From TrEMBL:
The keyword Ion transport does not apply. Keywords: NADP, Oxidoreductase. GO terms for molecular function: aldehyde dehydrogenase [NAD(P)+] activity; succinate-semialdehyde dehydrogenase (NAD+) activity. The lineage of its organism: Bacteria, Bacillati, Actinomycetota, Actinomycetes, Pseudonocardiales. It comes from Pseudonocardia kunmingensis. Residues 3-451 form the Aldehyde dehydrogenase domain. Gene3D superfamilies: Aldehyde Dehydrogenase, Chain A, domain 1 (3.40.605.10), Aldehyde Dehydrogenase, Chain A, domain 2 (3.40.309.10). This is Succinate-semialdehyde dehydrogenase/glutarate-semialdehyde dehydrogenase. Belongs to the aldehyde dehydrogenase family.
Length: 464
């Protein structure tokens, strides 16, 4: 894939970049290894100060950074501004809490001083997607840099200006040369970078096929890996729910980032008692959304990321309808320039259809009917994915059942799934493994070293 900024609103190629050649890539890997030797010795206070400076730059330049993201991705300008703000929040949160999270952990062993010390691993490769080009990176980078690691970023090839902007922000914040570098390379270079002895770990957010490849490469190289892959999150609505609130949040969650988020609510599982009214209100709200230029203040839904994304989504919709689903609204790409697909609602989803088994990465909502809580849980778990999910009910017993029985990495009650620095983030099943954010973020890319200090007069010995 070419490394280029192509405006998804117009189809215009704005800027192209030459990928790194082998010699340039080698220089960056060598620089990362050298930078780690010095950076790992910096104090908590020094690292925290650097992250806070990065947060200040993000806040001060939020509008310009947001415009770059909207230009390359097509998300609404308001959502891009919010994304930059979340990155600043993440930098400050990890600057404040990482020293405590990674403090030595004492162990009660009579006659000796024993503790676990967390030490950084070294250069970490981050393979990140285009849909949240800033947040996906900073939710890795902030805790990893605070832990004393250095970062190598391979961001998706359609957002090179965002990738370079992140490196520039961290450089201007004062991080030493080589501590965080953007690698403008194609996906074919990833396996070789993982295999390089100087790279000590890898994290990927992306598709399930990409995750399988990266996970296999990391396993072959015996290196730590974290995978955050696709999702087809369930959004369960029971009769006791506030229906107005549930429908409003259903639309907000499904349309987040023009419907292109791994944690969008995608499968709306509604009790038969209220399904008809839920569907009517959902269709009404989806049809009321404004599709258009993401730079405009009144736009609710911008374009998809690429023509291929439109074609893939449309084929999934067509095949699902051909299998017997009912198209309630939308369902046809919009004419004219740009990669526009309308807010779409499908009901009566047949078993085995694309909407049943695949992730629909775009503004398409699918509605399922459930007879009771048992049936809702069955439908929710009838997926190879298990990233996030939510349930809308005032019944305490139902709330506990959904928390305990829906197979997912995150379960929200009367709130749709989101990521925030204070809360762990990650999935189950084919949605990946490992966790990001909160205490898991700093502890992911560290060596948990056991230290045992015996009294000087005590001899050694014993058995393993």
């Amino acid at each position: 894939m070419a490394i280029a900024s192509t405006n998804p609103t117009t189809g215009e190629t704005v800027r192209e970049f030459d990928p790194l050649d082998d010699g340039q890539l080698e220089e960056k890997l060598a620089r990362a290894a050298e930078a780690f030797r010095g950076y790992r010795t910096t104090s908590w206070a020094e690292r925290a100060d650097l992250l806070r400076r990065a947060a200040d730059i993000l806040d001060d330049e939020a509008d310009d950074l947001a415009r770059t993201a909207t230009l390359e991705v097509g998300k609404t300008l308001a959502s891009s501004v919010a994304e930059v703000g979340k990155c600043a929040k993440g930098c400050r949160w990890f600057a404040e809490h990482t020293e405590e999270i990674l403090a030595d952990v004492p162990h009660d062993v009579p006659g000796a001083e024993v503790f676990t010390r967390y030490e950084p691993l070294g250069p970490v490769l981050a393979v990140m997607p285009w849909n949240f080009p800033y947040w996906q990176v900073f939710r890795f980078a902030a805790p990893a840099l605070m832990a004393g690691n250095v970062g190598l970023l391979k961001l998706a090839s359609n957002v090179p200006q965002c990738a370079l902007a992140i490196e520039d922000v961290l450089r201007r914040a004062g991080f030493p040369d080589g501590v965080f570098q953007t690698l403008l390379v194609g996906s074919g270079a990833i396996e070789g970078i993982i295999a390089d002895d100087r790279v000590r770990a890898v994290t990927l957010t992306g598709s399930e096929p990409a995750g399988r490849q990266v996970g296999a490469a990391a396993g072959g190289a015996v290196k730590t890996s974290v995978l955050e892959l696709g999702g087809s999150d369930a959004f369960i609505v029971m009769p006791s729910a506030d229906l107005d609130d549930a429908v409003a949040n259903a639309v907000s969650s499904r349309m987040l980032n023009n419907g292109q988020s791994c944690i969008n609510a995608k499968r709306f599982i509604v009790h038969t008692e209220i399904a008809g009214e839920f569907e009517r209100r959902l269709v009404e709200r989806m049809e009321a959304l404004t599709v258009g230029d993401p730079m405009a203040e009144d736009t609710d839904c911008g374009p998809l990321s690429s023509p291929d994304a439109v074609e893939t989504l449309h084929q999934q919709v067509r095949d699902t309808v051909a299998a017997g689903a009912r198209l309630r609204t939308g369902g046809e790409p919009l004419p004219g320039p740009g990669n526009f697909y309308p807010p779409t609602v499908l009901t009566d989803i047949p078993d085995g259809s694309p909407a049943h088994r695949e992730e629909l990465f775009g503004p398409v909502a699918t509605v399922w009917h459930a007879r009771d809580a048992d049936d809702a849980i069955r439908i929710a778990n009838d997926s190879t994915f298990g990233l996030g999910g939510s349930a809308w009910t005032r019944d305490a017993g139902e709330q506990q059942r959904f928390v305990n029985e829906v197979e997912t990495g995150m379960m929200y009650i009367n709130k749709y799934t989101e990521s925030t620095p204070e809360v762990p983030f990650g999935g189950a099943k084919n949605s990946g493994y490992g966790r990001e954010l909160a205490g898991f973020g700093p502890r992911t890319f560290v060596n948990a070293k056991t230290v045992w200090i015996a009294p000087t007069e005590q001899g050694s010995g014993g058995v393993e």
